[in-house]
């Protein structure tokens, strides 16, 4: 019997993996703990070109396109409502890589992913909370809370940051996990985030993105289709928490949070209170940050937030999960071609999965690190971060856009499917693989050199203005 994969979690990562396995003719099923595959929990998801291209390969992008308004420009504001910089960065990324920055309800994306499975929706089993994973002589079994058991050759945990599958993998193979040499980071939480979706707000327009940088907090606001407002309030908590002590917040906590930060400017004319008054759905959560050093042991693997949980500030959490899934599907498709009429042996499967982690690890870690660094820069975590965010940003110009392009163009794709014609229309081509070429390395180094030249010039100029003319003139915007 050929390879069979049990996907634990009907998440964006889990359902994208289901589509990918269907496309390469690998048997699968999905076990989802909840009763609803697309619950209305008030969360949003940002789709960037590196994730969009993979979804387009799977034929899903056209349906997503009906629910988005591409971003065209962004504004960065200070805590006093002063414009730090306006940028065409989103439009330029769209032109370069053929897909836009876009936001939509997470529920809508999950619904699209589920419905596009067509007749294979029957392979998605709801109300199946996996509580234990066990190895047997020639495979692996997933035990559910209701007593049902599902057998296969591989279990993939796409069950989120508190992954049962990852915990099972660690419990069964503690020594193997401790002995590996991959970089990792234990789970911690230093920031909270109020996620909100609001009805249209006067002064906020579709296609615009707004950021507010301050000391101890920041905001991100994206105006989507029909002027719906997707917004985030990031705040630094009073302490850093480890995995066992991460706080959970109540509705009362949320209301106090909104009241405390209602004065914060979303733009020069719109305060946070104007957005929160029109809220449709929202929730307050501590933001977990973790990067697992081991993604796979024997017949178990994990994807998405289970292994690289990042902060949402650069919108790469879901997109990075999609890339990791695509990379895994590529390796499983290759394994299936080698064993078309039988299930792979444990040795063959382990080699496949370990190669997948090795090849995917560094890029995933790079994105994870960038996201978490952005959170601290935007919320002015240290004097260094505040200087960059408040004073140096206007001088970075196209360098930030070039840096994002470097990240996007090296994205993973599904090797067993053709690239969409749409993806070839951008002015900067994607590399054929997720690996970074020597040319990219050279360009990346040049980008950093020029970035810091611009930073230094800008910082020295502003310092001279303050010393010779006065800070008041600087605040007027003349310099």
TrEMBL record:
Record-annotated membrane-spanning stretches: 450-474
MF annotations from Gene Ontology: FAD binding; monooxygenase activity
Annotated InterPro entries: FAD-bd, FAD/NAD-bd_sf, FAD_mOase_fung
Keyword Signal: yes
Gene3D superfamilies: FAD/NAD(P)-binding domain
Keyword Iron-sulfur belongs to the record: no
Keywords: FAD, Flavoprotein, Membrane, Oxidoreductase, Signal, Transmembrane, Transmembrane helix
Signal peptide: 1-18
Superkingdom of the organism of origin: Eukaryota
A matching Pfam family: FAD_binding_3
Family note: Belongs to the paxM FAD-dependent monooxygenase family.
Name of the featured protein: FAD/NAD(P)-binding domain-containing protein
Species name: Aspergillus ibericus CBS 121593
């Amino acid at each position: 019997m050929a390879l069979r994969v049990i996907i634990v979690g009907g998440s964006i990562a889990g359902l994208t993996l289901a589509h990918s396995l269907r496309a390469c003719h690998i048997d699968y099923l999905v076990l989802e703990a909840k009763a609803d595959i697309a619950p209305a929990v008030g969360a949003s998801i940002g789709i960037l070109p590196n994730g969009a291209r993979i979804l387009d390969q799977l034929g899903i992008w056209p349906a997503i396109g009906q629910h988005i308004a591409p971003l065209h420009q962004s504004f960065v504001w200070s805590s006093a409502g002063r414009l730090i910089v306006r940028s065409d960065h989103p439009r330029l990324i769209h032109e370069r890589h053929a897909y836009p920055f876009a936001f939509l309800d997470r529920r809508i994306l999950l619904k699209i992913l589920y419905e596009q499975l067509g007749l294979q929706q029957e392979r998605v089993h709801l109300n199946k909370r996996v509580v234990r994973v066990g190895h047997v002589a020639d495979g692996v079994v997933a035990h559910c809370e209701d007593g049902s058991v599902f057998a296969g050759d591989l279990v993939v945990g796409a069950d989120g940051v508190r992954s049962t599958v990852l915990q099972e993998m660690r419990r069964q193979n503690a020594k193997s996990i401790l002995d590996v040499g991959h970089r990792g980071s234990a789970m911690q939480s230093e920031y909270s985030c109020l996620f909100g979706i609001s009805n249209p707000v006067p002064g906020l327009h579709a296609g615009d993105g707004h950021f507010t940088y301050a000391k101890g907090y920041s905001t991100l606001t994206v105006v989507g289709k029909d002027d719906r407002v997707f917004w985030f309030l990031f705040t630094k908590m009073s302490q850093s928490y480890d995995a066992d002590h991460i706080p959970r917040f109540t509705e009362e906590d949320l209301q106090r949070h909104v009241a405390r930060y209602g004065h914060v400017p979303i733009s020069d004319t719109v305060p946070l209170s104007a957005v929160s008054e029109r809220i449709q759905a929202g929730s307050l959560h501590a933001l977990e940050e973790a990067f697992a050093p081991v993604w796979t042991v024997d017949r178990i693997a994990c994807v998405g937030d289970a292994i690289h949980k990042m902060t949402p500030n650069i919108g790469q959490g879901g997109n990075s999960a999609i890339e990791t899934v695509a990379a895994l599907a590529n390796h499983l498709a290759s394994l299936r071609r080698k064993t078309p009429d039988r299930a792979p042996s444990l040795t063959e499967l382990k080699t496949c999965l370990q190669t997948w982690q090795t090849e995917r690890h560094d890029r995933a870690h790079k994105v994870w690190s960038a996201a978490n660094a952005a959170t601290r820069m935007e919320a002015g975590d240290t004097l260094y971060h505040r200087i960059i965010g408040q004073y140096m940003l206007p001088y970075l110009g196209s360098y930030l856009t070039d840096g994002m392009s470097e990240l996007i163009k090296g994205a993973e794709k599904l090797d067993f499917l053709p690239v969409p014609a749409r993806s070839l229309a951008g002015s900067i081509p994607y590399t054929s693989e997720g690996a970074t070429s020597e040319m990219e390395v050279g360009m990346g180094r040049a980008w950093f050199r020029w970035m810091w030249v611009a930073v230094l010039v800008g910082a020295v100029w502003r310092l001279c203005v303050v010393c010779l003319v006065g800070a008041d003139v600087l605040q007027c915007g003349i310099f």
